[in-house]
Structures are given as C-alpha cells and as structure tokens.
Amino acid sequence: MANLRGGDLSRLRQLNSLTAIRALRGAGPLTLSALAERTGLSRPSMKEVADELVELGWVEEVPPSPGTMGRPARRYRFRADSGCLVGIDIGGHNVRAALSDLDGEILAETRQPVLPGAPLEERLAAIDRAVSGCLALSGRTAADLWTVAAGTTGVLTPEGRVTFSAAIPAWTGLDLAGKLREMFSCQVLIENDSRLAALAEARRGAAQGARDVVFLHVGRRMGTGLIIDGKVHRGFGAAAGEIVMLPEARWYDAPEHLNGCEVVPEGTAPEDAAGYTLAAARDGHPVALAAVDRYVDDLAVGTAAMVLVLDPQMVVLGGGFSRSADVLLAPLRERLERTCMRMPEVRASTLGDECVVMGAIDYAADHLSRELFTSDSPLTPMR
Amino acid sequence: MANLRGGDLSRLRQLNSLTAIRALRGAGPLTLSALAERTGLSRPSMKEVADELVELGWVEEVPPSPGTMGRPARRYRFRADSGCLVGIDIGGHNVRAALSDLDGEILAETRQPVLPGAPLEERLAAIDRAVSGCLALSGRTAADLWTVAAGTTGVLTPEGRVTFSAAIPAWTGLDLAGKLREMFSCQVLIENDSRLAALAEARRGAAQGARDVVFLHVGRRMGTGLIIDGKVHRGFGAAAGEIVMLPEARWYDAPEHLNGCEVVPEGTAPEDAAGYTLAAARDGHPVALAAVDRYVDDLAVGTAAMVLVLDPQMVVLGGGFSRSADVLLAPLRERLERTCMRMPEVRASTLGDECVVMGAIDYAADHLSRELFTSDSPLTPMR
DNA sequence: CTACTTACGAAGGAGCGCTTCATTAGTAGC
DNA sequence: GCTACTAATGAAGCGCTCCTTCGTAAGTAG
Known about the structure:
Two copies of one chain form a homodimer.
Chain A: H1 9-26, E1 30-31, H2 32-39, H3 43-56, E2 59-62, E3 75-78, E4 84-90, E5 94-100, E6 106-113, H4 120-137, E7 145-152, E8 155-156, E9 162-164, H5 176-183, E10 187-192, H6 193-203, E11 213-217, E12 223-228, E13 231-232, H7 256-259, H8 270-282, H9 286-310, E14 314-318, H10 325-339, E15 345-348, H11 355-373
Parallel strand pairs in A: 4-7, 7-10, 11-14, 14-15
Antiparallel strand pairs in A: 1-3, 2-3, 4-5, 5-6, 8-9, 11-12, 12-13
Helix pairs in contact in A: 1-3, 2-3, 6-11, 8-9, 9-10
Chain A binds a DNA duplex through helix 1 and helix 3.
C-alpha cells in the first residue's frame, strides 16, 4: 500500500514547486505567465513559487527575450548546470565516460583504452582518468558530481558486485559498487551494460517512445537488455535477460557461425573475424551468406523466446554485429514472422558505441528524478 | 512526463481524503484519533475530512467499541459494501463467477457447467446465470455492480476481442468485451485467464508478496501468466507469455507424454488421461515415472526460458496437473537448477479452481484503486 | 461518589492560492 | 517625439485548509 501520510499546506507548496520544476525541465526557459498556464496555477501564486525556487537555487532568472509586445516578461530556467551526472561504460577494451548536466544533456565524453587482461588497479585507474577527463573537458570538479552510473559486462548482484565476467577476468568477484563509492563521494549506481544500452535506445535511440523493448547485443558475446513499462528490468536477483544460458535457445555458440566461416582469412584476430563474414555476405558471397543464415537461424530462436515471453513493442539490434544490420535484419524478421504470435518492430541501434554511456546517463537521470519527485520532505536548497 | 498540473487547497483536501480512505481500507474501523495518527493530520482536520467523506458516502460511522478507557471514540469504516465487483472465469467446461465488495472480499461464488462445443449464446447465457446467481446469493442487484472483470482461455487483443481460442471454438473472433458491456452496464475488463491466475497467486496465493512471478498453467493445454513489478504483464499486443508457440521450448506437445502413457486405460476420456499417469507415478510405477520424467524434461525447457529472461522471485505451478505437484515439483526444480542463472523459488498453486475468479476480482480491485487514487478531479459522491 | 482517562468541540492563528485592479515597461503608429 | 496599445508586474483583500490550544463531555476504576 502506498503512502499513508497526509499533508498540510507546505506539502501543497512542495507539490507545486515540483510541478514547476517539471514544467521548466520539460521546456526551455519560460515566462511566469507561460509557467502559470502550464501548471494551472494563478500568476501571483506562480510568482511566489518561482521566488522560492530561485531562493533555494533550483531555478534562476534569465534575461527577458526582446522584441515582444507589451512589457517584457521575466523568464526562468531550471539550473540543470548546477550539478552533473556521469555515465561510465566499462568494457573489455575500453572505458568510456560521459558527463551530462542534470537534464541528461551530454557535455563531455572520453575514452580510455585498456587491455582485456589488465589487472584490477589498472582498470580502476582508467575509470578514474575517463571521469577526470570529462570533468576537465566540461570545466567541472568532483564536487559538482551528483550521481555516477556505471555499466559493465558480466553478471551482477542486485547490490553491484560482479558475480562473473568473461570479458574482464579481473572483474570477477569484485565489489564494483563499493570500489566506485570509494572513488566518487556521490551516489553510485551499477548496472549491466546491455540493460543500459537498452534504456538509451528506448529513450533517445531506435526505440524512442516504446514502453516495452527487447534489446539484443549481438557481437562476439550475446547479451540482452529488457525495458518493461519504460524501466530497466533487472529481475529479482539482477539476472534477467540471460537467455544465452539456455542451450535450446541456441545463442551461446551462434557467433561461431560467423567467426569460423571459411571466408575469414587465416590468422585474423578473433574480434575481427565476424566482420569479414558479414562484409562478404553483403557482397553476395554464397558461403558467407550461408554462414549468416545459420547465424540468424540460431539468433532467431532465443529472440523468439524473448519476444513470445514479453510481447515487446520493439526489438532493437545493437552491439558490434549491428553495424551489419543491413545484412541481418531482413532474415531475422523473416524467422521471427514464422514463430511470433505478434510480430514486433525490429530495428537497428541508432546510437552506436556511445549507447552504454548514454544509457548510464539516462539511468542516473531517472534515479535523480525519482528521488526528487517522490520525496516526502519539503524541497531543500540545491546544494 | 508525468502530471504538470499544480493544485490549490481543494487538491490538498482531495489528497488527504484519499489518504484517509486508504488508511481505512488498510485497517478495519478506526477511531478519529487513530486515523489522525496514521495520516499525520491533526485531529480537527481529520474530523473535517471524515465529515466530508461521510457526507459523500465513502465512509460511515460505526458504533463506538465499548469497554475502553475514557470517552468512547467515534469510529469510521470504509463503505466497501456500497458497491461490488464481479470476477468471471470463462473456461471450456465451466463458467465461474465470484462477487466481492469493493475491498475484494469475496461474498458469493457460483459455477455454471457448459459444454466446450456449446454455441455462443449458450455460453453467454451461462455467464449471465453465473453472475445473477452471485448477485442473488449476496442480496445485490445489477445496479450495485461497479466493475466486471472476466478471464478467458485464448489469445486476446488489447481491446478485449478473442483472436483465437482452442478450448472454446465459438469464442474465436468474438468481441468479448463488447458483448459483456452489452450485458453489464458497468466497467468491463477482459484478460487472459492464466494472467489473472498469476495475479491471484501473487496477491493471495503461493507467491504472496513477490513482485515478479512466473505462473505456469500446466494441464492439457499450457499457459502462462507473468506478474512484473506487481502488475499483470500483457505486452504491447496483449500476447505476452506465449512461449508455447516456440517449438524449441518443447511445450506444445509436452502433455502428450502424460496423456499417451501406456498406464492410461484404453478408452479413458482425454481430459482424464494424464491423471492416471500422474497417479501411477506417485505410486512408483516405473513406466509412469519415465513418462513424467519426459514431461518435466520438456516443461523445464520453456520454464527455464522464461526464468532466464525474467529472473522472477517465484515460479508458481497451477492448472489441472498441479494437483500432482508433489510428483512434479522436485524433478522440475532439479532441471531448473541445472540451467538457471539464479534459481527462483518453485511452488505449487494454493488457490486451486477458484484461482482465476479471484484473480479477476483482484484485477477489478486494482483497476478501481487506480481510478480512485490517481484521479485529478475532486472526490465525488459515492454513487 | 470521586478521580482518572480519553475524546469532543470551539476559537483563534498562520500559510497558501485566488481574484481584482492600478501600475509599469515595452512596441506600433502617426 | 508623442500617443495608443499590449502584456506583465505588484499590492490588496478574500476564502479555504490545516494547525494549536483549551475547556468540556462521556466513559471506566476505585
């Protein structure tokens, strides 16, 4: 059962203040009249609320826009720049970071290469460099950090420990959330990278507007992220989406069809192998086409399982192989048409390599909004 | 983006009135002081709110409880009896109905047998009789009906049309929601029966308290219901949970292992066949045990797929075969342990045949609560 | 019958949002 | 450069909702 607390007049003021913040965050700078109209409050009341928000630091006045009829109107904006969020993508070969304002508008991005086998300390140092780089690029300091959200490959516990990571051996067993909390003295959130990518696609990418989305990370390793009712679905033990563990879903060995194809030149690095096959298939090479067919056959089984279970509005194809989405989408759709009850839209990722960091930013922004808008205590000064 | 409307003092009163209703619904009759303490309002304000609620008919005063120290306190209760909800389970062989008060407390139940091949009109008449029976048993009339929620076998559209029903041939293509709206001049909700059963198990049954639940209907036909974040998950096209359509999940033909077992006497009705096999297995008959093993082998594949995708807290086994849960649970758990990342609890349904009607009642009650507590308009008189 | 406990009811006060209206600071037209 | 027009501003006054306080009422316990 939800909240049982009633409220007095200050609660009403709190609600109206939050409504005003929401209105300002949704649209750029607004005049007092526009704000009053949107919130349904009268002008004098809106003024009172705005004055208080300015006082507390959540909102500031901006110069009136010239060239309008009548007396120039005060304009207000949400001070999205008075704090920042950082999203981190901890991958095998790279640590990426992005810094955004409190609205999730991205202000800086960095990338730090790391070797997959690098020891723990080295990777943590890379994280530190990536974040420091973002802070420097955007002229901020660590004190401006409100929330850090990190996505990493591997299986996590709900508390942010790494149960197992094939891509980053040193990661296995690590209390990642704990380590990052030592590094950053702010709110720290940990999530699986595919789930964050899924969130990014649902918010800014190919699946914008969809409430239920299945994101497929297709690459050397298979991964998934589920968005259900607009939110990341983790599951009770943060293990949702691990369909790759089911042999009958035929996902685990699926990439081998592409990696092991005979069109791949002898001595190619394992991470580049599939690219050759996909490129050859695009050129119509029959052996490569057959390999892609076998790959998609397998890919479609696990995908159909997820689609049948969840009936999502959309399936988004991301990850390394999705650069060859033109080769993969049509046959995948064809397979899914055969088994799926209701065929979802199937699209390629539109966000590319920055997918995970953007998802991390969105995750942090969601968390912030939830904290702000569901709080029961009156609005406090903005740090 | 959520609600952008601010509110004035009447909004505050509305919130406090709703909080009071919530408090009263959560606990039996409460004195004014108890109510004030729970809601955090002062006594005089609480009195004002209570007076208004009594005025509008949502709440009534009950005689003070005797034998207490001090002056006897006024007591109030939510008038859960001033309206009623009806849940209907439209199955192949039976139409069941249950009637509850507005809190979902069940007051009457009825059952009307129907032949699976019965024509449309006959089944609709059975529905009418089942509901009329409940009304008569509880001394209500159709005018007291607030919401009717119906669960039926088959695949539905989001709007409540039946796309296809193997168990009820006459159902296929029917605008069920439309038909029921003609019969009942109140709110009508339609949902798949397994989903409602899942809801009932999550609210009152084996999975009480769990937010993420996979419900398996095991019987002559396989079905599933998913509870995600405490709510029924339908999917974008109301087709969620149809893993039975995936050949690799090995569900479709799974019941055949039990139905076609050689321990089943010649000439047994198809709906009774599996019962023989399960009973023989319980007695240790080796042929039956082998059949059950093969059955569970298949059952576990589709189940593991759902568990891996969703990572639910609990899996509940319901439907006809779940009467033999003692024979099925242990081997099912054993199979799941092998493939599942994180093993969920696996339990047998505790609600039995009334599962679907109870779920329908819960579904209707949820709908009512959502309407009541998320409304933006001030509280209206209770009809 | 008295003391004690608990609830009731009335009075007075503070905070919040609303409406109203005179005032102010711009643009547009002559 | 002056006047008319437009739209926002700021101050005043009202009503509603919740709060605190305090004397009174209706029970039980001894």
